[in-house]
Amino acid sequence: MLPPPSPPPPPAAVYSPDHLPQDPADRLPIASYPINDQDAVRRAYIMKGPNKPCPQAFAKRKIGTRDRSFNIWWFHKYHWLEYSIKNDAAFCFVCFLFKKGGHNSPFTNNGWRNWNRDDALDKHVGKVGSLRNAAQERYISYLNPSAQIDDVIVGVDSEERRLYKIRLKYSLRCLRFLLNQGLAFRGHDESEESKNRGNFLELLKWLASNNEEVDKYVLKNAPGNCQLTCSDIQKEIIQCCAMETRRKILEDLGDDHYCILADEATDVSHKQQLAVCLRYVDKLGRPIKHFLGVVHVEDTTSLTLKSPIQDLLVGHHLTITQMRGQGYDGVSNMRGEIKGLKTLFMKDSPSAYYVHCFAHQLQLVLVGVAKGSDECEWFFDQVSLLLSIVASSCKRHDMLRNVNLQNILKAIEYGEIHTGQGLNQEMGLARPGDTRWGSHYKTVVHIISMYPAILNVLISLGNDIAQKTDWPKIRAMVLALESFDFIFSAHLMVTILGYTNELSLCLQRRDQDILNAISLVGVAKNRMQQLRANGWVPFLQKVTLFCNQHGIQVPEMGANYVPFGRSPRHFPIQTNDDRFRRQIYIGIIDHIIQELDTQFDEVNMELLSCMPALNPSNSFASFDSIKVRRLAEFYPNDISSSDLIRLEMQLDNYIDDMRREESFQGLNNLVELSIKLVETKRDIVYDLVYLLIKLTLILPVATASVERAFSAMNFVKNDMRNRMSDSLLDDCLVTFIERDIFFTVNENDIIESFMSIRRRRPDSNKK
User: pTM of the full predicted structure?
Assistant: First the structure.
């Protein structure tokens, strides 16, 4: 029976290191590619290098009476060797690229797996004239490790080489500027007669007007087929910029552990894009987040999401077994216990613990409160009606701005408010987003701050005969604004959303760690308890003062409650105190406390409950060696049973040293402790303790970095650039989001990568 035919090779446009499979078992034979493309494929694989995952990826299986696996030291002795995670087998990288003819070897066919017979490695190398050594000679003669531009441009004299360097250098510099700013490259009309040929050509033209070298050699005297300005050349340079930026990030990570943060969103062309970020601890002991890439996915089931994430990681020499944390937004396809994405990854890496995004959990708390309280629903319905009235025309917006400005000027004149930089800024009433409760807080704050102006505008509109068709809505809104129910709810929402908004902003900080996040959630719960126990009197005084200032009648708390704008049939007979204090104030606060306990249930998870034992605050007052040892047991692949014995001895020395050493006094969080351990070289002395600190810092707090990537995606791929390909979008996002890393990439490194893609001639067909 004949074997099934190999799938057709990809088109030449994707012969780049990022788009070719990393695992040797997934690769197509070089001979299966078109003869004219084989050179480009070889160069792309050489740029990727042999697949050499970290030791955690090596599977064990029983051979004879012993469990054996691939030996990491073979990589150091046999540089041509690579490992397939998919097949649990070793392959020869050189033979894959250059072997010609001869019998099929396990190292080029299905892979070598006889780990107990390492003499097979020497037999594969063979004698001087062996097929493998012949492939090695072709590899050496083909390989150009320095990729100098003088060597890869063939068949030209030194002057042509010099001019080619100049043209490439300035094209690269223009593209680096545009990538850094997230701007488009091409124009609608790039012909010579066009008045605007696009950002890239116009920037090059401007550069020529200020640089004689550019004017003389790049635009005027360059051969028509070698100006290095065409769209294909631009994309190749951009691809190399992204490659070098990622290389910087991955070099910083090395073989260390990492956590992934992932989320999906729809771009402007209605494609579902999956963004992936990495979180790890760098060489200085700091937790770092970096954007890795964005991948187009056709659906968002857990199985469909795992494949592109895994391909993206493996394609950049990262293995799933290195993963020590997962962070998603918490939907069922992500966090499901049976078939969720977190479960699929934990099958491959059991210590890749999942933490639900804390900021998203806080969002769910607020959504639960808003939907579970009739008073909250009524209040936000009134806010929505108010915004629809004001936002229906620009004229009404201008009226509101002008009235508010007059009120501010009058208050300044009477000395009621102060002036200064950043004070008394122009405000408006923006419609809050359904998924951004920080915007609800901002809207309610603006309603209270602009209350007199809003009321004056509504009264003016209610008396304007030209607005007669809207009189019912406008006059109903005036009645609502002048009711105690609305003012009470507005101030309660400002109080509650104000505290939760501060918590949300803290959770989304880039340098936040899991211990601080747990502490902040505890602070939020404690603050709600304080508001419930002691906050009613000052809160009511604040609401009463506001009502007295604006002529709003405050009901007697002992009198019977009369609902505003709603039928009394739906409300029990109760006093105003029962309604406003017990049912609304205490009821909503109790609901928030309950939702905080429900949504942040992971805080009670044993893994997270052990982590505060490493907290250095108050001179390591929370230190508990039993909890630290229990924490170590959650990572059996990193800390073995023998290491646990050593950890017990190490912990005694560690805590004694920390409490005696003056430089470790006054540390407030785990990040400061990690940095200080590296600075004092104690990360080497207390290696197991430092490993646990790193594993704690790796765990994610929020997926804000992924959401920032989507904001960047909407900026880069906008309505004017909606036909941008997925690969170009990925390259542009990496350089735009990681612009700080991109700025440090050496220009010569990008040029070397560009010249390594294929051999080039100044008389190439591409411009």
Answer: 0.76
